[in-house]
Amino acid sequence: MIETRGIDHVVLHVNDPQRSKKFYTEILGMTVYRDAPNQVFMHAGAQGVALFKKDGDAPAAGGDLNHLALNVAGGTYEAPKAELEAHDVAVSGRPGDDRCIYFSDPDGHRLQLIFRH
Fold first, then answer.
1. Is-contact 69 112, C-beta < 8 A?
2. Does some domain include residue 4?
3. In terms of residue numbers, what domain contains 96?
4. 5-44 pLDDT tens trace
5. Within a 10 A sphere around the Cβ of 8, how many other Cβ atoms?
6. How many structural domains is the chain composed of?
7. Which CATH number covers residue 93?
8. 104: how many CB neighbours lie within 10 A of its CB?
9. pLDDT tens digits for range 51-72
10. CB neighbours (10 Å) of residue 53?
11. Which of 40, 63, 100, 110 could bond to 21 as cystine, CB 3.0-4.6 Å?
């Protein structure tokens, strides 16, 4: 049996990897560890997120990925929500649930921030 030790990275196909890199680094605090014009690899804690330039006219978002859920290191629900809104990112959540925020990246990928109390 192969013993896996976690997820190395998830790939998101995007229209403009450099534009998406700015979103993921400046708003979500990810750090770049490999950067090329058509591919950007970033750390989100111990896991990785890779942005690949999409081919042709295929939709950037959708397909098999329903959404990417990210754990928030700390703080309160209100602070990240306000920061996203300050960047003109529309946010939503579950009524009565202050543990998660849903929003989309510039290519329409559905993202979720999860707060552990």
1. yes
2. no
3. 9-55+66-114
4. 777 889 999 999 999 999 999 999 999 999 998 999 999 9
5. 11
6. 1
7. 3.10.180.10
8. 15
9. 999 887 766 666 667 788 888 8
10. 17
11. 40
Angle at CA of residue 11, ends 56 and 30, nearest 5°: 120
Can you give the pLDDT at residue 59?
67
Count CB neighbours of 26 within 10 A: 10
Model confidence, pTM: 0.80
User: Domain for residue 86, yes or no?
Assistant: yes
